[in-house]
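Appendix B. Raw example, untouched.
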Amino acid sequence: MFVNSMPRYEILSEESMQVLDVGWQRIMTELGIEFMKPEALALFKEAGQRVEENKVFLDPEFVLAQVAKAPREFDMQARNHAHDVHIGGNHMVFSANYGSPFVRRGDRRSDGTLADFQNFARLSQSFAAMDSVGGVVVEPNDAPLDSRHLDMVYNALTLTDKIFMGNVVSARNAIDTLAMAEIVFGSRAAIEETPVCISLVNCNSPLRWDDRMLDAQFEYTKANQPVIMTPFLLMGAMSPVTIPAALAQQIAEALSGIALSQLIRPGAPVVFGSFLSNIDMQSGSPQFGTPESAIGLLCTGQIARRFGLPFRTGGGLNSSQTPDAQAAYESLMTMLPTFLAGTNVVMHTAGWLEGGLVASYEKFVIDVQVLESLQREFTPLEITPESLAFGAHEEVGHGGHFLGAAHTMERFRECFYRPFLSSSDNFERWTRLGARDTATRAGEIVDKTLQEYVEPPMADAIRAELAEYVTRRRAELGD
């Protein structure tokens, strides 16, 4: 996994942070946060917080005391321990696309299928820069609705040996995810000791945590599996249009959910989540890769560090319909500040298209290319007497060239990052080879990667037990 030890880009002054503190505290104390689950309300009431119907009015000091119980950093184990990850600090974990109902391959846009989910799992396994396939990388619409979570978890566990994301549609889906993880990792005690899956719990912004999300949170937190408590903010729709107002709301929502996690199980791992962008005020459509979302992302990193929490934000977000120049520059507008902020958990790293409606095969490869390049760019430069290469100057002298110098010959294979997708051919050669644009070349890499994919080994007994669990639960669910 990638360790980002470069300096953080922080843009908020101490005075600004103090104003934001006043803002989120007023939201908690004067407006309150809705929790649409009786068990959550009961925990807050037992802890001395004022509860009116579904609304909890939170004491900021109480919230901060709860948040302080969450670990600043924690480990997660993968099926292959070479792919274990560390969440927090300087570490960055990259997961693929999440939640798209449609896929795009070449010029064809269609409903996502289980075969597509499997292919994206294979791609995530194949690229070393990716730490996880994620969760619902694409919705398998041809699988039965009530049991498709079983198919997704089964394929994430068998087609990859990296960490995966849990299903959060319901408590029952979360329980199934945990049961399948116990089969693979040996026991409930084993996954509680070192977590194996991380799950996305979205707030129904503004200021409401819905019952289904909370149901899943309860199950994962009781099992000591990390949850990413994420306000879902599109400025102008789910929050006011100003960035400071959105940030104050984001803090109030995220910290309230994190406080609940610590009431459920003190010390349980949790991630300060952020999904912050804006709408087009002319059409009302969501926009991604905007300057405002980049600013909010940089602020989020600074805010999360202030509370001593690992955080999630960023990714290759864009609004484009195809993997074109717009998709590339909007994605970079989000991915670059993702690195500048030192984001710990990055969802939607690869494949996101059309505002998240589409998982694109070609865009997946393009995004991995961007990811690898940024990882190289954010690797600190080592300046040593050896790297100054004075001997090369002595060898070449004045007016010569360094192509054949000993220093060059010793290092030419690894001295520069070599993009696997980009073309640097001259025009004549590029034309002779078919004048293939970036998306076309990316599609060819998709085909080659899937053809060369090798499924990671799994013990036959474990695979059989997993398959039996899926078959039994599918029958119980009536599919």
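End of appendix B.
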